[in-house]
Amino acid sequence: MTAALVERVRRRLLDDGITHAPDSARVAAALREEGVVLGDESLFDLVGSLRDELGGLGPLQPLLLDPQVTDVLVNGPSDVWVDRGRGLERAPVCFADPGAVTRLAQRLASLAGRRLDEASPYVDARMADGTRLHAVIPPVSSDGALISLRIPHRSGFDLDDLVSRGAVDECGALWLRAIVDARLAFLVSGGTGSGKTTLLSTLLEIVEPSQRILLVEDSAELRPRHPHVVRLEARPANLEGAGQVTLRDLVRQALRMRPDRVVVGEVRGAEVVDLLAAMNTGHEGGCGTVHANSPADVPARLEALGLMAGLPRDAVHALIAAGVHAIIHLQRSPRAVSEVHVVRQSRGLATTTPALVRRGDRLVPVDGASALADLIHAAGGEVPA
After folding, report:
1. How far apart (Å, rounded) are the C-alpha atoms in residues 185 and 272?
2. Tens digits of per-residue pLDDT, 117-151?
3. Are residues 165 and 145 located together in one domain of the fold?
4. Which of 225, 358, 370, 372 could form a disulfide with 338 if both were Cys (CB 3.0 to 4.6 A apart)?
5. Residues with Cβ < 8 Å from 265, sequence gap 6 or more?
6. Number of domains making up the chain
7. CATH code of the domain covering residue 190
8. CA gap 74, 141 in Å, rounded
9. Is 350 in the same domain as 203?
10. Does 121 lie in the same domain as 228?
11. Residue where a domain stops, chosen among 122, 152, 182
């Protein structure tokens, strides 16, 4: 059963209008038209291959069934990588040819309601199951189609799960719970793939059930198990350039929906102005994620975003210092909470002071822990011993 045979049968099924998972009878009929007769076992294998090709993710399907896989990266027909939380590993997966990679990318884009062709050679979209799809095809990618898949966790984590996985120790978990219970405003920082969304989703699960959480995301990835969650998702412009709904638009709408907590899945644009304003106008417990190399870099990152939105530098730092209480930073390998900082103000600029620092596999309180304890205590929370 060669790749050429699979391709011919696939084309016959498509010509017959079969665009999803075929049954054995349809495949057998297509084989007879090709003048090929297969035994039961070979026919079963072919049906499985075509089912993955037409209704699934082709050769990538087994990778997405692995509960440890968080990212799948396709650089070419025989150049596939996965991340299981230990860094990138080459996967024993091959496509028939470069065209098969391009077809998969285009089909996934179509399933997500997006277009992927020479006129629109890249796409960033969310699949129905929550998988984040990014794909690029020629002429933008000169070596062929590139596919990047970010796979959401099949089941949510709670703090105990994070402790058992080594992402945070028991002492650190108590501090994180205290930050959430005291309704301090915080940001989760870290690099791409460090687990920011997973940690934020976990922390939102311990929010008081009576509180109303407004989630604002560019692509819906946060999935906290909480009884009162309202989701708002941004929308790109259509082919005519109309209909765009930005994160900034959604943050403004969220503030009018009686939120107890406003959560921005990823702060990366002008929405930072409205989020910081919300954190300074009585909306306690606001939070979000932000890309940064270290927690000390977060004020500079927010400053850059605020300046791009037209807010003066001193105003940005004033809002940060007054509205954001803590920064929770994640390292990428191994994925774990590496530091917790308290936001302070010095000479008109927002700065951060380490409160908890990872040493070995533990988060150890340092000089800034007393300032974090004061914030928790002042908000009526219980300070960990």
Report:
1. 13
2. 988 899 988 887 778 899 999 999 988 999 999 88
3. no
4. 358
5. 197, 200, 215, 216, 217, 218, 219, 220, 221, 222, 288, 289
6. 3
7. 3.40.50.300
8. 12
9. yes
10. no
11. 152
Distance CA 141, CA 99 (A): 13
CA distances 347 to 310, 321, 332, 344, 375, Å, are 22, 11, 32, 10, 21
Peptide bond into 139 cis (omega under 30): yes
Q: Which residues contact 290 (CB under 8 A, 6 or more apart)?
A: 187, 188, 189, 266, 267, 268, 298, 301, 302
Query: Torsions phi, psi of 58, nearest 5?
Result: 60, -140
Query: Residue 76's domain is classified under what CATH number?
Result: 3.30.450.370
Tokens coding 183: 């309704």
pLDDT tens per residue, range 56-78: 677 888 888 888 888 999 999 99
Q: Quick check: 286 pLDDT over 90?
A: yes
- Do the beta carbons of residue 176 and residue 376 sit within 8 Å? no
Q: Give the tokens for residue 113.
A: 């309601």
- When pLDDT is cut at 50, 70 and 90, the band that residue 303 belongs to is very high
Q: What is the pLDDT of residue 102?
A: 92
Contact residues for 218 (Cβ-Cβ < 8 A; gap 6+): 233, 234, 247, 265, 266, 268
The parent domain of residue 113 ranges over 59-152
- Total residues found in the chain within this entry: 385
Q: Are 30 and 93 within one domain?
A: no
Q: How many CB atoms neighbour CB 312 within 10 A?
A: 10
